[in-house]
Amino acid sequence: MTLEIIRRGLLNGHMPLPRMWHDRDMKDRYDVVIVGGGVHGLACAYYLAKNHGITDIAVLDKGYIGSGGSGRNTTILRANYLTPEGVDFYDESLRLYRDLSWELGFNVLFSERGHLTLAHTDAAVRTSRRRAEVNQIQGVNSRLIWPDEIKRLAPLIDISDHPRYPIMAALYHPPGAIIRHDAVVWAYAREADKRGVHIHMNAEVTGIDVEAGQVTGVITRRGKIKTGTVLNATAGWCTTIADMAGVSLPIVSHPLQACVTEPLKPWLDAIIVSGSLHVYVSQSDRGELVMGASIDPYTSYNMRGTLDFLEGLAGHILELFPSLANVRIMRQWAGICDMTPDFSPVIGFTPVKGFLVDVGWGTYGFKAGPVSGKRMAELIATNRVPDLIAPFRLSRFEEGALVGEKGAASVGH
């Protein structure tokens, strides 16, 4: 690879780079159609092809690959959730992410940093202790730590009693990591394409055909496709797609904003989260501080940043790191989060035969990309629900079998 880079450099950019995936003609029939060209849809296509030999697949996206939540998240990975079902699920995803560069033959810049969820109140300390115990029982590395150790992990953080909400403790999750989100999308797309999967960009879905309770086709702006299996992996737009198939989902969509600063010299190794202050921050491989907050308190598909978000975020970040006062914000944006009543996803079968869902991820979606793709591929190939995703079935809302993950949110919802 090093010699190849040198060779291209000497050619002064005149040698064209190979395509990551091909532009293919859209067929009028596929065995499987995946709506949504983000990490979930592409991972499912890849694992269907690699693990189950199913390659007659179309991945459709209304824009470009990764243009939705996969390209707008803040790249944090963790497994320190609150419920046993959630911990097991996200732990498998984190393990898959850890080996993804080797799996896909592409450097996705996985970087294990450690994840600290700060506790500013007695109630938050109790919740952190409970989460640590659940994590440890499930075999996940998490523990409660105190201000002196927090200071060692993040030397510039203010652990004094001067802030409005002094830091009392933190849930420390050493396996917490960051990764390059666009690299993950490209790598899955490239490997799926190599195995014969068709990736169609600018192919917005406008309708889904259902006959006698069975999916029979998908209508796009580029033509109609016949198929007996459709996977809805469209995150914030999942209810729009589900409505086309006559499936009602208990999901509402909220904007989630984030921003980055100018690049700084490396100084923050750990990922810092405060549920009480509704902020989180990590430092990217390029030196930028990547920062975010809780979802906006209204439903919308708007993906523009707001001044109100930026003012609130900046004030709370400065409570944690006063020395950042003169650092400049360079860019801000928003993504769309698909929120369920219990803050857990909806994965699996629906009342319409052949219409499957991988949605309802809220603020957790990118963290779950590999495991949801792998397990949904298993479900499609075998027509059986894997044990790992069974708790997240759509019918749980009627059954009263909720998987309450609100307490495990990195920031307040």
**Low-pLDDT windows of residues:** none
User: CATH superfamily assignment of the largest domain?
Assistant: FAD/NAD(P)-binding domain
Q: Give the tally of structural domains.
A: 2
Overall SS class? alpha+beta
Query: Approximately how much helix is present in the residues?
Result: 25-40%
Approximately how much beta-strand content do the residues carry?
Answer: 15-25%
Mean pLDDT reading? 94
Radius of gyration: 22 Å
CATH architecture of the largest domain: 3-Layer(bba) Sandwich
Widest sheet: strand ordering: 6-7-5-15-16-17-14-18
Shape estimate: globular
CATH fold type of the largest domain: FAD/NAD(P)-binding domain
CATH top level class name of the largest domain: Alpha Beta
Terminal CA distance reads 44 Å
Strands, total number: 20
Number of helices: 11
Largest sheet composition: 8 strands, mixed
